[in-house]
Design brief:
alpha+beta; nucleotide-binding; ATP-binding; 14 helices; 27% strand; 30% helix; Dna Ligase, domain 1; D-amino Acid Aminotransferase, Chain A, domain 1; five-stranded parallel beta sheet; Rossmann fold
């Protein structure tokens, strides 16, 4: 993979994949980036082309047919389904954890038991498949308390219940009415942790890890962290709550022990590893959850700030030398505001025309290089009209010299974009701005 003229494939169709494809395409070593299946934003990005592949056999076929040198997996579902194992069996180069390693995200129960075995700091928990036992446990523990679907639920399988009524309703939704299907056939119930959340994502090579820029996601639908949990309504990078001291503790107490333990158990972890953290008031980090891929929408601000060649970093991980690699970052803050469809997160409306996007040079860039628009849930009609096609539609991502400056720039552009029932939070970055010296 040392040569120029590389052909890369990104698996997925969302905002995270658009940001990854955009960044990979900037590498002088890359000739073409295929995105499978991609979206209208990736189709309009320089060097990028969409492919109609959306399952493991078709991704393998595309990689062979187009002589793909490197495949990068965006979403969690293909990883949990074993795409890495399948590619490796065909002799194809792919970046991501194996199916066994991806259990860190695919099963909350697996992850919690793993952390308990190896002394990795996380909240006390219990797992249930019987609703009566789950209800009894919640009554005994009291609220606030956290109810999680065991399986993959697209970032929406977590209920932070402030009251017992909310906790019981979440249990019934998952275990009785089975609204989350198999993902909610078991629930993990864990203690509520006080503190501030942060996203800590690393590139891992099975033994060592390189930390990417820190970020903070905003999961709740509404301003002030109110309303239902979503896949994420916005994010910014860096996250000031991750001080140099906290950063060192996370690497020492969480990331390195996790990689060592995965290797010890015979499932070395290679790929992006995302630790969703709760930073306690005293600075102690706890793992809220592990994800086996980049976050969404955290990828958008992180990629906007990354100055290093992403291909070089991935290559270093695949060759087992990420411990010697370094990454260079734009000193500015990046902030992403998600524009969501009417009815999101429960029943997003599709097919609404999107107006106010720039026509030139592409739908990706607007005004200057400090504002980027990443597509997620969009589609293009035969007549060229861009329409909503998913819950989270676009992520307007801006760079600025402070959180406040990036926020102002992102919202100025986000306000111009219109579609019926558009939802967006107006306080992305509020925690950093509210604290002196952080804005």
């Amino acid at each position: 993979m040392k040569h120029l003229g590389l052909t890369v494939m990104v698996v997925g169709s969302g905002g995270r994949e658009h940001a990854l494809a955009w960044k990979l395409a900037q590498s002088p070593r890359v000739q073409r980036v295929f995105v499978a299946p991609g979206n209208p934003g990736t189709a309009a990005t320089e060097k990028c082309r969409n492919l109609p592949a959306n399952d493991i056999p078709s991704w393998i076929d595309a990689a062979k047919r187009h002589h793909v040198d490197l495949t990068v997996v965006g979403p969690e579902a293909p990883l949990a389904a074993g795409i890495v194992d399948a590619f490796q069996a065909e002799g194809l180069t792919i970046f991501g954890p194996t199916q066994a390693a991806a259990q860190l995200e695919a099963s909350k129960e697996f992850a919690k038991a793993f952390m308990a075995r190896h002394g990795i700091p996380t909240a006390p928990y219990a797992t249930f498949s019987d609703p009566d036992e789950a209800h009894a446990y919640v009554d005994a523990q009291g609220a606030p308390i956290v109810i999680k679907a065991d399986g993959l639920a697209a970032g929406k399988g977590v209920v932070v219940a402030q009251t017992l009524d909310e906790a019981h309703a979440a249990i019934d939704k998952m275990l009785v009415s089975r609204e989350m299907g198999e993902a909610g056939a078991r629930v993990v119930i864990e203690a509520f942790l006080e503190g501030e959340e942060a996203s800590f994502i690393v590139i891992a090579d099975g033994k060592e890890a390189l930390a990417l820029a820190t970020s903070q996601d905003h999961k709740r639908l509404l301003d002030g962290d109110q309303g239902p949990n979503t896949g994420g309504m916005g994010a910014y990078s860096p996250a000031p709550v991750v001080t140099p001291e906290v950063h060192a503790r996370v690497m020492r107490e969480i990331i390195r022990p996790t990689l060592a333990a995965m290797a010890e158990e015979g499932t070395p972890y290679v790929g992006f590893l995302y630790a969703g953290l709760m930073i306690a008031p005293n600075g102690a980090p706890f793992v809220v959850e592990f994800n086996c891929r980049m976050g969404d929408p955290e990828t958008q601000p992180i990629m906007a700030r990354l100055k290093s060649d992403l291909v070089d970093l991935i290559e270093a991980a695949l060759e087992g030398r990420i411990g010697d690699a370094t990454a260079e970052w734009d000193r500015r803050v990046a902030l992403a505001v998600v524009l969501a469809a009417q009815g999101y997160p429960n029943a997003p409306k599709k097919g609404d025309p999107i107006m106010g996007l720039p026509k030139e040079p592409t739908p990706l860039a607007i005004n200057d290089d400090s504002v980027l628009i990443f597509h997620a849930g969009t589609a293009q009609r035969d007549d060229g009209t861009l329409v909503t096609a998913g819950g989270r539609v676009l992520a307007v991502t801006a760079l600025g010299d402070s959180v406040a400056a990036a926020q102002q720039r992102a919202y100025a552009v986000a306000e111009q974009i219109r579609f019926p029932g558009k939802q967006m939070r107006r306080d992305i970055g509020h925690r950093a701005i509210a604290k002196p010296g952080r804005s």
